[in-house]
Amino acid sequence: MPTSFTVVPVEGQEPQPSRPLEDPSQQLAECSSGEPGDGIPKESSPFINSAEMDRGNIYEGKNMALFEEEMDSNPMVSSLLNKLANYTNLTQGVVEHEADEDSKRKEIKAPRMGTFIGVYLPCLQNILGVILFLRLTWIVGTSGVLESFIIVFMCCACTMLTAISMSAIATNGVVPAGGSYYMISRSLGPEFGGAVGLCFYLGTTFAGAMYILGTIEILLTYISPSAAIFKAEDADGETEAMLNNMRVYGTCIVALMAIVVFVGVKYVNKLALVFLSCVILSIFAIYAGVIKTAFDPPDFPICLLGNRTLSRRNVDICAKFIEVNNETVTTKLWSLFCDNPSLNATCDEYFNLNNVTEIQGIPGIASGVLIDNLWSAYTDKGSIIEKKGHPSVTGTEETKVGGLPYVFTDIMTYFTVLVGIYFPSVTGIMAGSNRSGDLRDAQKSIPTGTILAISTTSFIYLSCIVLFGACIEGVILRDKFGEAVNGNLVIGTLAWPSPWVIVIGSFFSTCGAGLQSLTGAPRLLQAIARDGIIPFLQVFGHGKANGEPTWALLLTAFICEIGILIASLDSVAPILSMFFLMCYMFVNLACAVQTLLCTPNWRPRFKYYHWALSFLGMSLCFALMFICSWYYALIAMLIAGCIYKYIEYRGAEKEWGDGIRGLSLNAARYALLRVEHGPPHTKNWRPQVLVLLNLDSEQMVKHPRLLSFTSQLKAGKGLTIVGSVLQGIYLDKYIEAQKAEENIKSLMGVEKTKGFCQIVVSPSFRDGMSHLIQSAGLGGMTHNTVLMAWPQSWKQTDNPFSWKNFVDTVRETTAAQQALLVAKNIDLFPANQERFSEGNVDVWWIVHDGGMLMLLPFLLRQHKVWRKCKMRIFTVAQMDDNSIQMKKDLQMFLYHLRLNAEVEVVEMFENDISAFTYEKTLMMEQRSQMLKQMQLSKNEREREAQLIHDRNTASHSAAVVKCDAATATPEKVQMTWTKEKFIAEKHKNRETNITGFKDIFSMKPNQSNVRRMHTAVKLNGVILNKSQRAQLVLLNMPGPPKNKKGDENYMEFLEVLTEGLNRVLLVRGGGREVITIYS
């Protein structure tokens, strides 16, 4: 819809007196060193080169003073429109939107080609070609007029639907050089673009081989049969000799054409009009010949023996014998079927029983032969071409027909084979879009020219089918090489004024098409190579100084030679049909995806498209691939699939705003909305992990093995969010946040951890952790498990992840009903490259918390690191428990869970609390109370805490003393006191502190803490006894105390519980069942 614009002049203020002329360099310096503005760096624009702008004019006047600080990144509308008006797309072979390698921009002449010259005629030349002249009559004769019409209509409908989709894509913005490859890659992404681009390249290359084979066939069969190098000694060796001739001549012509293309493409382009003239002249000759047959049919007699067609290559007279001077003389035909020329010779039985007759090969359009040619006549390889409805007497015994002058079929024919052979005749619809850089108005010319060209060629093909069937005898139509008409080109027998018009015209046409293929294919490969999406192809992006793709030409010639060595045009045609059909299928897919997604950038000027038409075209392409040849189709899809996976795995990442990315977003949105309906069933539950990482001052990950363990646990399945917190204000820390994110993503790539990274900048480290736990993820794709490392230096108060933060994190995961995994001694955990050849993964199942302890070892053992480890499950029996029954029940439970594990029940009997436990509890409480009351400096507090820790460690190895000796005295606590410290403390709340110190030294441990310490010590002893050599120990993580005053004691309990173990994973369930015995 046209939009009206109104340009409103802004009235300036009173004119100011003009300044004296200054040095331009000084003015430029003033402009460049002006006010810093908002500090936003310049942004690059695809249309505006800010370095080339006349900066002195930007700030002229004061009408735009309000926006002057944004002029660097956001230019004025007048400048933008000026640049857009002067924008021209680049010509063929130049890297899109880039300058030459020497960074010197060359002037590009304004493209001047219109629709007719730039699109219509090139498409016409590429579509009409070798199949029309060499195979269309044979297809009509073999499949009949009706089925031929269906074949041609299907193929033409396929290309028409593809052209509609292509027109929509081509008019949705500027299409630089690259044509169909550019359209597909920018619409479907680099993976699809590279795969289909290479398929299109292979199709174009094999098309060159097909055209060259057609050229040789015309040369050796119809122009100069004596030029054959290999001669057949008998009729059986003719096919093999012809194939060998094809290979020799084909290799020479490929080399010759490659040299011509290498020397100068401009000569090929200049000859294109000559080749096109040959094609158009040949088609006019066909139509003229058809009109002439209505009143003066040409004289092309066909010799039949019974209903069998005879070859006229070695037969001059179509009769068994003739009268010469009143004497009966046998003919050459007699000698071919009989053992001697005499009339009483022994002859072939079929020859004796049937008469030799002669009929007109081209009876004319008014003869009514169309009725006979309506139906198909499919045959096996080596069958004799017979005229339907003609009288024939079959002998009583089978006679050998080999060596007799019949016309035989060279391949087995059926409907699908003919589709594969015919389809290359409708390819070439991309010729206009490939020349988009040379068009005056590509968005108008490409749709109009391409659709008109397809309409024209479709009319030509469909009309030729009807006219051939109405003018030519069926046995001549099925005679592929014209043996029944003295070796003439069948379509040439119909032409007027002479068969040589078609022969010479088709020869030059196929030569020109081969040259065009060898010219276009290397440039397509060069465009793919220069995009950098396939690393091993980058060498083919280089060429001569003028940009000619030398290396790509060599590869193209080599692949073309492979097609030449196949040597049979009927075998090469289905191969290139596959590649072209795959390319067309993805053009339709690109249009359908863009239309259905309704992306904001999808605004084609061509309006006569619909997603249903694109989908129909895509379906038709897919169906034709398998109709032509199902095994070729599978091979082509396998090649494209391998290229796709290679680009996905090794190719450079490109962001082209492709439709597949939009399709993924839509699919993700739909899936997220579906997942949002409710929590997953227990059978579908898997740990969706939020990994909390610590970073150092350089924003590097402190514990990389945490990501290794994550990848071993997840194996690429489910959701993984890797999060970390930076302390500070976001406006001050956003650069550090970006650096941290890059470092984490890099490490995730090294550790093969598939997931997302999320960095939070918060004034408080504690709040940042809380934000991550609450808000990480999206919709139903949120984490249900938190994985973190044990704070090894939790006793050091300067540690940002102190014991207080850790305990609060445990509480918050419990409140959020999320499972918690705490890896202790994480740096001792194995890397992804390590392999455990033996060992155990021990599970200490003390309390049931949803089955996490059972599920985690199973998931770990799916990874190569843990695969050879055995799973052992220990549970604890109390005094009143039946340990034997407990073991049986646990084994049955594991059996129903389909888990293989050894089961052991450990008995823990009640006994008195040891003096060691009592003393350890007292030391813990004394230190906690002392650090609260003593206001020591940072270094002194660390020293005192370390002294008490060392004493506790020493106490563990000391002999057990009596319970009475466990009562602490002031003399036993070795504190470091100085005179200065004593005076300072005396002046600070003197009486309170003195009372507090007296309480510390005379206090008795809390009985609840004693019991807990007793449990920790006892369990630790049992676990050390059974699992000290285990590769990994998993055990229930007790919850923190409800009273927050005991948080530090809680950390001590966990430390005692896991003391002496190498690798420990503390597991705390999320309050729901995660494993089930049901299917």
UniProtKB/TrEMBL annotation:
Any single GO BP term: potassium ion import across plasma membrane
SLC12A transporter C-terminal domain segment(s): 820-1079
Entry's Gene Ontology molecular function annotations: potassium:chloride symporter activity
Protein keywords: Cell membrane, Chloride, Glycoprotein, Ion transport, Membrane, Phosphoprotein, Potassium, Potassium transport, Symport, Transmembrane, Transmembrane helix, Transport
Leader sequence residues: none
Boundaries of every Amino acid permease/ SLC12A domain copy: 119-291, 412-690
TM regions (residue ranges): 113-136, 148-171, 192-213, 246-265, 272-291, 411-431, 451-477, 497-515, 551-569, 575-597, 609-633
GO cellular component: plasma membrane; synapse
Region (Disordered): 1-47
Membrane topology classification: Multi-pass membrane protein
Annotated InterPro entries: AA-permease/SLC12A_dom, KCL_cotranspt, SLC12_C, SLC12A_fam
Location in or out of the cell: Cell membrane
Domain of life assignment: Eukaryota
Alphabetized Pfam families for the sequence: AA_permease, SLC12
Catalytic activity: K(+)(in) + chloride(in) = K(+)(out) + chloride(out)
NCBIfam families from the UniProt entry: 2a30
Family: Belongs to the SLC12A transporter family. K/Cl co-transporter subfamily.
Listed name of the protein: Solute carrier family 12 member 7
